[in-house]
Amino acid sequence: MAISPMLRSVRSGFGKLAIVSGFALILLNFALPTFALTGDQPAPVDSAVAADPQSSTTSTSPAVAPAPSGMAFMHQDYMLNWGPERQKLADKGFSFNFFYITDALDDVRHPAGTDQTFNNWNRIRGTVDVDFGKFSAAKGLSYHVTGLWQNGSNMGGVIGSIANPSGLVSYHQFRLDSMWLQQKFAKDKIVLTAGLIAAQDFYGLQEYGGSYLIEPLDYNFGNMGNVRASYDPSTGPGVELKVIPEKHVYVKTAYITPSTLESSYPSGFDYKNGSFGSTSDTEVGFYTDPGAPATRKSYPGIIKAGFIYNGGRGFFDYSKGTTVSGNNTFYLQANQPVYRAAAGSNRGVDVTFGFNVGSQSKSKVPTEFTAGVIFNGPITGRPKDGLAFGFVYSKIGSDFNNYETSLALPRLSDEKAYEINYKAQLAPWLVLQPVYQYYANVGGRSTGAAGVAGFRIVSTF
């Protein structure tokens, strides 16, 4: 009996997944119950931390009960135990965070007889934050700097997808990532940030990004390149003003200049822009249920809408067949808990939805939709784990298709990508996240499909 391509992909993908990480999860959940973390999910953190755990500037590791004898290593907050020195430095205004993260992914539908190897993308990031208010009269002033090394294989290039299977992938680099000064005024209601920043770290960033691997759900919309929005780690000069008139609402706007190419800007200091223009970024956000007391079930979410415009030259207009100036995109995102198991608990269900839309005539993929459901603490006794389902729809522009057919090239179809993963918190400093992704019409090919299986490992040290 014939088996559909999707079922064959699922069968093959989960077979490899079981070999790679299934045994570890069995041990984790059943054979070694002493590894299970006590307590409940930590409180929500800043969006940049939640969506990009490898760039976190704040430890989200919860306090745990004293470790059993011989198990202290698995219960400490960081892989490298600094003892009390780390906290002493933080109390004085100096915070240090270091991360290693790898996405190990395999194309499970590769031709028979070829090598079956995982494609790894690795990243090491170091971050330093200085709070001047803790040791000087400069209240509200802080400094942030982070650098990274990254290297590996791009699975998106292997399967030819529009939505990249990994939200980490860009260029092989060892460089300064971002660096800025931030000053808060009027009891933190006005925030001014200036330095080397990435537009996608501040605008359209996925609030629940740490729950996924696929780029549009892990980091930011995959088609933000339409407006040349700078991304992590490709930063450029920028300034942002954020106003928080009351606890439910914020408005922020920024002017950010992207770099031309990472190859011409390898260190993070030798900045070049060429004709890439600059982005004018604006976002309005609404917090749902902010500051809820721990004595009742709380549902702190966020709804945000933004607009990005780049007035630079060299955007190709498919309806005219020539280059023009200027391009834009509008986005809307909603991230909301919908169920909580108990008061003061983050165990339950979260949902996320988003879409962006840009100029039909100037983009191959002018529109992208994202949606997901996250089950926090799905296994009794493992409240730090998460089970996530995600969907990404990348819509091909009609003007692009018409232009392609005028050149006797085939029309492309909209790409649809699905993800399921399980995020296992093996220790406060160690996460294992097995994943399976299925792509229909991968890369827009009407008869193409792809399956990707693998895992993410995140270690804080």
Task: Characterise this structure.
It is a single chain. This protein has 461 residues and is mainly β. It has one domain (5-460): Porin (Beta Barrel). It contains eight helices and 18 strands. The strands form two sheets. The protein has a 16-stranded antiparallel barrel with strand order 1-2-3-4-5-6-7-8-9-12-13-14-15-16-17-18. Strands 10-11 form a two-stranded antiparallel ribbon. The longest helix is centred in the first third of the chain and has 27 residues, at 5-31. The model is unreliable at 5-69 (pLDDT under 50).
The tally of helices reads: 8
List the helices and strands in order.
Answer: HHHHEEEHEEHHEEEEEEEEEEHEEE
Low-confidence stretches: 5-69
Question: What count of structural domains?
Answer: 1
DSSP strand (E) fraction?
A: 35-45%
CATH superfamily: Carbohydrate-selective porin OprB
- Assign the CATH topology: Porin
Strand adjacency order, main sheet: 1-2-3-4-5-6-7-8-9-12-13-14-15-16-17-18
Number of strands: 18
Q: Output the radius of gyration.
A: 22 Å
Computed structural class: mainly beta
| CATH architecture level-2 label | Beta Barrel
> Which CATH C-level class is it?
Mainly Beta
Could you write a compact summary of the structure shown?
By secondary structure, the protein is mainly beta. Helix content is 14%, strand content 40%.
